Fold this protein.
Amino acid sequence: MPVSSQKTYYITTPIYYVNGLPHVGSALSTLSCDVLARYHRLKGEQTYFLTGTDENATKVTQAAEKAGVPAMDFVDGLANAFKECWADLHIANNDFIRTTEPRHAHAVQEFFTRLLNKGYVYLDTYEGWYSVSDETFFRDSEVKDGIAIESGKPVTLVKEENYFFKLSAFTEPLLAHIEANPDWLLPEFRKNEVVAFLKDGLRDMCITRVNKGWGITVPGDDSKVIYVWFDAVINYLAATGWPQDPNWENLWPADVHLVGKEIFVRFHATLWPAMLMALDLPLPKQVYAHGWWTVGGQKGGKSGASLPHPTRLAQFIAERSGAEPDLAVDALRYLLCREMNFGPDTEFSVENCLRRFNNDLANDLGNLLNRTINMMNKYYDGTVPEVDEPDAEIVALAESVCADYEKALSVFRLNDVLEVTWRLVGRMNKYIDEKAPWGLAKAANNGDAESAKALARTLTACLEVTRIVALLVSPFMPSASTAIYQQIGIAEPIEAATWSDTAWGGLKAGGKVTAPKPLFPRIAELTVEDSILYALGSANPPKSETEETSKPVSETNTPPATEAEAAVPNYISIDDFLKVELKVGEILAAEPVPNTTKLLRLTVQSDEDETRTILSGIAEYYTPEELVGRQIVLIANLQPRKMRGIESQGMLLAADINGRAVLLQPDNLVPVGSKVR
């Protein structure tokens, strides 16, 4: 464990159940933490990144029994599978903890003993509902017909003597901590879920189970093992060396726990901080919850709708594109972070990933790199020219992008970080077209001194931006950033760079670029057959009859109204109108929906901390490029509707002008989320 006079930036993933192989859902959590860790290292901060596996669950032993192998052999194999997958994804974690390790068991038993000695743990009889699948206890109000309402998993009625944690004592302290630390729980709408959960009242929690030969035993009582969720969250503290390592406070408290939404409210925002409060230990500085990948509107994962195995998907991208394996891995890293909204749930599609690969990586970034290097070789024999002064507009844009990058990353919106970065990439591709270096070169060859200066200024601006972009994407794509550095002639390893190197002027005259080599060759075939999806570990469930016949409003064959019907005004009451929630939103991203001519998939920011996916049949009237950044009016409380396997979470308002859709928008910029009355 590192020792430093300054506290180390400490970031953790959830620890993953070892009842199945990793998928792009667990990869997203781990990759997000890896990006954050690499960013903080780029900022010059000493950083410690922890991930691991949760191995003491009852359902783990059930999975082992089903596989016909001893439980320890089973968890050993899957823990190694996670380690190998993270290594394949270029994950640079400092530590990998397993809850079957002695260091973890020792910390858990010590934690339990201290709580017992302080009077926060007591023995009593538990009678209530328990879900083995969720490893969670539920109240009567949270169960209907033998099913947990929250998860849809079966529950059983349990009655046994167990130890309880006085969770009820921490309702007010937790609410007070949230009030005093408004950025402690993110995003905002998930924090609101926690507040509602707390205000409903906490009850004491059963924290042991009967010992059936698996789990961490209760100190002094071998008849019981400690409840898996009480055990699991202590891993974050155990990895610091608590309580025996004198330097454990060099890491603790964690700077951020990044988790999926399903384990946010009950465990990471309620139980875990209450446990720490009980022992007067510092709480983690922030807890962030991302949404789920969905497939056909269902949660993706090991059960239910299947998600691809990350390594298989990276190999598939390499095969389809012809990219080098390490660069295909980096492409996958980019695609997962760019596709996830990092707010609500996001529909996952392999075809969408391939399409974004072409648009963002092959076209945008690839074109900027290849065009710039080709022209540097053609007009300057590969040598970076002297420039009297840089283009002020591009310098200002680069500074603005770096500032917005940091702002988006501070609230863990990694998709926005990449969106911001691509503002710079997109501008430079247009800049090349606007400045037309080929025309400047021709004029310069004819003796025009001003054109010669403009040519040097234009190409060095493109090369300098490419250098800055390489740094900005390095936390997401470390191998690709290294390759960009090599092509633009920077000998120093990108790992040696710091955030200060994003400042303009790092490119020196006299440097030599190399021959261009496409990093991300364009994918010709974007269609993915079901058989391939199954092989990747992902397949959309068969479409229901409703989904097959479902069409966007613009494609439905609604019978025309008769004259009599049209003559009768279709009045509604003011009460009916007030049920419709209209808001101002901003379109953050737009792209065509595969195999349709009319549908666009829009990512719309509908509130300060909320984005949603909306499908709109306006592709005939608007290109994706002209929609991005536009403010629109949306119906925010429309019941979600699934079209083409994608859930649409609202509707845009548009005027119908002779059959053409014209989007409605405010006549002045207004704050996103403003209500329309």
User: Anything to note?
Assistant: The first strand starts at residue 9 and ends at 12. The longest helix spans residues 350-380. The chain has three domains: 9-290, 300-502, 551-663.
